Amino acid sequence: MRHALLVMLALLAAGCSSQIAGAPAAPAVADASQVDMCTILTDPELMGLGIELKSREPVNRLGLVGCGWLGTRYTLDLERDKDTVAQYQARRHDPAFTSFADNTVNGRTGARLSVDRDHSDCTQLIDGGPVSLTVSVSPAGLYTGPKIDSCAEALRIAQMIEPRLPKAGS
């Protein structure tokens, strides 16, 4: 999917980084490196989001594993990323990102970013311990209805997913 490719290219351009020096330690989060982002939302949930189930396209490249779908209003990519939220935060000023902001998803550390010049896309990151989980939303190419708020939609979907993630101590 176009947005996933842009994010992957931005990650390649950004390179790897370590934890932010002097940053406070985030709460312990269970390892989400085995979470299947292709099945974390049910078919009825995806259909409720306006997603065409038959458009599912598996993703397994450049450290991203998951699936992408086409919807009536937007494209949706749900992926597990080898880079952590802290690694993204350390690269927040990378010119590949047209916006970057720390946030939380149901109390779990997160961040949102955009790579499109017009900020029409949005990727919401969720802390998954040694990985980050990503929800990426971009307007559908042929959609002509009211403009969608990609970041609000990505956060809403991330909030649906977060309760299903492994919890520390469980």
Quick synopsis:
This protein has 170 residues and is α+β, with helices and mostly antiparallel strands. Helix content is 22%, strand content 28%.
Biggest sheet architecture = 7 strands, antiparallel
Counting DSSP E segments of at least 2 residues, the number of strands comes to 7
The strand order across the widest sheet is 1-2-3-7-6-5-4
Query: What is the H-and-E element order?
Result: HHEEEHEEEEH
The class by helix and strand makeup works out as alpha+beta
The CATH topology label is Protein Transport Mog1p, Chain A
CATH class: Alpha Beta
| Number of H- or I-type helical stretches | 4
Helix content range: 10-25%
Query: In CATH terms, what is the architecture?
Result: 3-Layer(aba) Sandwich
- Strand share of the residues? 25-35%
Shape verdict: globular
Spans of at least 5 consecutive residues whose pLDDT stays below 50 are: 2-26
Structural domains: how many:
1
Determine the N-to-C terminus distance.
34 Å
Report mean pLDDT, rounded to a whole number.
86
Task: Compute the CA-based radius of gyration.
Answer: 15 Å
Description:
By secondary structure, the protein is α+β, with helices and mostly antiparallel strands. The protein has one domain: Protein Transport Mog1p, Chain A (3-Layer(aba) Sandwich), CATH 3.40.1000. The chain has four helices and seven strands, in the order ααβββαββββα.
Task: Name a few traits of the molecule.
7 strands, 170 residues, globular, 4 helices, alpha+beta, seven-stranded antiparallel β-sheet
